[in-house]
Amino acid sequence: MFDILKKVKKKKLKKVTVLYNEVTNLQTSDKKALLAEEGGEEDAKIISGALKDFGYKSDIYELTPRSIKVLDHRSTDLFFNLCDGVGNLPKTEHKVPQFLDKKNLWYTGSNASALLLTTNKVLTKQVFIQNNIPTPDYAVLQRIPDKTPEGLRYPLIVKPVAEDCSLGISQKSVVYDLSDLF
């Protein structure tokens, strides 16, 4: 965080707005379907306070489907992106930098392409393999196989292909033999 502040300070950065999305007014009863975690506002306040300690003007801004529409009217020099998506909408993390890029606004964090890539475990594995980055063998399964896929050794971790971070992973995701998949 502070490296970017050193770089942009040369450009007379004066105000930083910390973007967050909070789990409020849930649109689903399944919290696992949501990308945001509780505590976003608290984290945003802590970061904003640290920025103030460094001499910057700073505020926080809750990003929702409604508030993103006017985000580009906000008077700020840099957006510190803490968003896991837009409001409570699943699978929208990439929409935040996509919007900021479209409006030519400065922000911290990954761009939309990087977020789309890294939230797809198969695509990420393929990039690792193409670039000779060591990564454990894997298999994508549509159904429970009759035998252990070639190249895999137990214990294995079974996880959803397109969930963010560790969503969908629990102690039951660790399998020690083929029968654990049932």
Mind sketching the topology for me?
Elements: H1 2-9, E1 15-20, H2 40-53, E2 57-62, E3 78-81, H3 95-102, H4 112-118, H5 121-130, E4 156-157, E5 174-175
Parallel strand pairs: 1-2, 1-3
Antiparallel strand pairs: 4-5
Structure write-up:
This protein has 182 residues and is an alpha/beta fold. It folds into 2 domains: 2-117, 3-Layer(aba) Sandwich (Rossmann fold); 120-182, no CATH class. Helix content is 26%, strand content 11%. The chain has 5 helices and 5 strands. The chain has helices at residues 2-9, 40-53, 95-102, 112-118, 121-130, and strands at 15-20, 57-62, 78-81, 156-157, 174-175. The strands form 2 sheets. Strands 2-1-3 form a 3-stranded parallel β-sheet, with helices on one face. α2 (40-53) links the parallel β1 (15-20) and β2.
Keyphrases for this structure?
182 residues, alpha/beta, Rossmann fold, 5 helices, 5 strands, 11% strand
